[in-house]
Amino acid sequence: MKIKAPAKLNLSLEIMGKRPDGYHDISSIFQTVSLFDSIDVQPADEIYLNTPGFNLPFTENIIYKTALEMRRKYGVANGARIVLEKEIPIAAGLGGGSSDAASTIKILNDLWGLNLTTSELSSFASTIGSDVPFFIEGGTSFVHGRGDLIRELPDLQLGWIVIIVPDIEITNKTATMYSYLSKESYTAGGLSRKLEARIRNGGDCPPQLMFNGFFDTAIANQPGLEEVLAVLNKVGIQEIHLTGSGPSLFTVVTRKEIATALSLLLNHKHHIKAFAVENISRSRFEG
Known about the structure:
Blueprint: E1 2-18, E2 24-44, E3 47-50, H1 62-73, E4 79-85, H2 96-111, H3 118-126, H4 134-137, E5 140-145, E6 149-152, E7 160-165, H5 173-180, H6 190-200, H7 215-221, H8 225-234, E8 241-242, E9 249-253, H9 256-268, E10 273-278, H10 282-286
Parallel strand pairs: 3-4
Antiparallel strand pairs: 1-2, 2-4, 2-5, 5-6, 7-9, 7-10, 8-9
Helix pairs in contact: 1-2
């Protein structure tokens, strides 16, 4: 049994303040895109995870932890032999780990014959991580709370996207980036709600609503990001957006040919990792 785990973009991301539980409240539009990890699962007596080319010890991988917890919670006697093939860059703001966890939940539900409903899968996913419930169905959604409250939106016709992944590593990145935020970084969530209303009413996704509250903090605290932005401007990319807490950036273009040409230019001339992708609708995601 094999499943693809897609990356996501934050078309908007507002941080509204710190919660009593230590998390932050967000207001965001999430969108799945056609950049995938691949997860292959076969029956076994115990839980095994193989991650070729991925150096993280398997016992620390979210897939392994998710499988163990799922087996414990639902009293499963069997195990699974899992192989993860990574394509989504790690700790890049693209949700790869959360997507891997959600895909593991879905495929083990089938392998172990648990017959859990979508609602039950999402409820369990929320115990694994903040963004994991979104990936149970994917598509376009308004996401709020600590990332676990989801309002599905109509499929968005976004066009083609170039994702740019600067070679920047930050230890414990998400927690570190949240620690850099000040009260000046917080907003009331209005831009994301405006974008939600626009999408819900069949509108487009205007750049002026694609705000990310981490943008200035990322530039100040992720060495090399400003230089990458300068390169993107030099090659003619003007509308540049941050996803998650970075360092990944993206721009929306009108045609596949433009996305492909830009990604090739960035990869081969400027040695900046880039991907040409399209957005994935919920209906396609489910298929």
